[in-house]
Write a structure and sequence with these properties.
Blueprint: H1 3-16, E1 25-30, E2 52-53, H2 60-74, H3 93-97, E3 101-104, E4 109-112, H4 131-147, H5 161-169, H6 171-180, H7 182-206, E5 214-216, E6 221-223, E7 227-231, H8 240-255, E8 260-265, H9 273-277, E9 284-289, H10 296-309, E10 311-316, H11 320-329, E11 335-341, H12 344-352
Parallel strand pairs: 1-11, 7-8, 8-9, 9-10, 10-11
Antiparallel strand pairs: 2-3, 3-4, 5-6
Helix pairs in contact: 2-4, 4-7, 5-6, 5-7, 6-7, 7-8, 10-11
Length: 355
């Protein structure tokens, strides 16, 4: 490894060990907006509102030029993180594998409920013949070949257990199912969690280590060993008691075989933080700065609460004022920032505020 690579790896080790890194670590996504689906030229023909998307429509080799461009762009940014190649971010992969129809919108893709109810829910099993799983793994293999050890390959943003059940049943129907049929719902959630784990482990078997470790896709955070992250966006529809009863066991199951783990969190789910802090195997809580607020200053008390017990990733379109607040009010250990910046120049300008 070069001295620069050695330094980056060492900084990441310190981050995971909650040692002093002198400043928050930082990684970057170069994007003009949060609609990452349309940042791939290869996907433009798919983004026709109402178009039904099938796996054969995704020409994986055609996407590789977009990935190569993004990787080369990342080298121009003075960041701590390593760009991670992930299967095309735009597709709701888990929903598709579980049988939901995938429909295009102008800037992204959505899944349609299957019409299933909790009363007639049948356990899902993902076989190697599942066309969407095969397409996901095809992306992974092509990315590993493209990488040639230049960058890590990992998982994109993937739906969590509540999100998968909500996608299959419908969101409102999921909430009623959890309240009125807790045993059936718990069994369904566990089944869907196992499906998620099967996908991730199949991908792990294809991926290579990167300088002795793996990386969290979407955040570009390197870890010294196997890592995984997940989300529970639909936890926002539940009570704290329902989260503890129905979803916390799923998260503990996801994290149990990994030393480096993270969960993605929106402000609408801040009420579950206390439960997350009690999950021993969960190492990182990632918190979004969403467009509708709250601000970094308004979220600071929660950031401080998290970083007392666990590592923190702050994700979003931050500005100089945000970074100044973070630098002054958070410790220089266990804090990572993932910036969304419109250009390489803007990214480097913002990173300069942390030095």
């Amino acid at each position: 490894m070069t001295d620069s690579m050695d330094q980056k790896i060492e900084q990441h080790r310190k981050y995971w060990n909650r040692e002093d890194t002198q400043r928050p670590l930082v990684s970057v996504t170069i994007a003009e907006d949060f609609f990452f689906s349309r940042h791939y030229s290869s996907a433009k023909s798919l983004l026709e509102p109402g178009k039904l998307i099938t796996p054969d429509m995704l020409d994986v080799p055609a996407f590789m030029s977009d990935y190569e461009r993004m990787y080369n762009e990342s080298l121009l940014v003075a960041q701590d993180g390593f760009w991670v190649g992930t299967p095309y971010t735009g597709i709701p992969w888990m929903e598709a594998m579980l049988g939901c129809e995938i429909q295009a919108m102008e800037a992204s893709f959505v899944s349609k409920p299957t019409g299933a109810t909790i009363e007639n829910f049948e356990p899902k099993e993902l076989s190697p013949e599942n066309e969407w799983l095969a397409k996901y793994l095809e992306f992974t293999r092509h990315l590993v070949d493209l990488s040639d050890d230049r960058f890590p390959v990992g998982m994109p943003i993937m739906r969590g257990p509540s999100d998968m059940l909500g996608a299959l049943l419908g969101q409102q129907e999921m909430v009623f199912a959890l309240m009125l049929h807790p045993e059936k719902s718990s069994a369904a959630l566990h089944n869907l969690t196992e499906c998620f784990m099967k996908v991730i482990k199949a991908q792990e078997d294809i991926c290579d280590d990167f300088h002795g470790g793996r990386s969290l896709g979407f955040y570009n955070v390197w870890a010294p060993g196997k890592c995984i992250w997940y989300q529970e966006d639909l936890s926002a529809l539940l009570s704290p008691a329902l989260f503890k009863q129905m979803l916390r066991p799923c998260g503990e199951y996801i994290c149990k075989d990994y030393d480096y783990t993270a969960i993605h969190l929106h402000p609408s789910s801040f009420f579950i933080v206390d439960e997350l802090l009690e999950m021993d195997q969960l190492k990182v809580i990632e918190i979004n700065k969403d467009i509708g607020g709250p601000t970094i200053a308004e979220t600071m008390e929660l950031f401080q609460k998290v970083v007392e017990r666990k590592n923190l990733i702050i994700w979003g379109e931050l500005d100089e004022h945000d970074l100044e607040i973070i630098r002054k009010q958070l410790p220089s250990r266990g804090v990572y920032i993932h910036l969304i910046a419109e250009s390489v120049e803007r990214a480097n300008q913002l990173i300069g505020c942390l030095h």
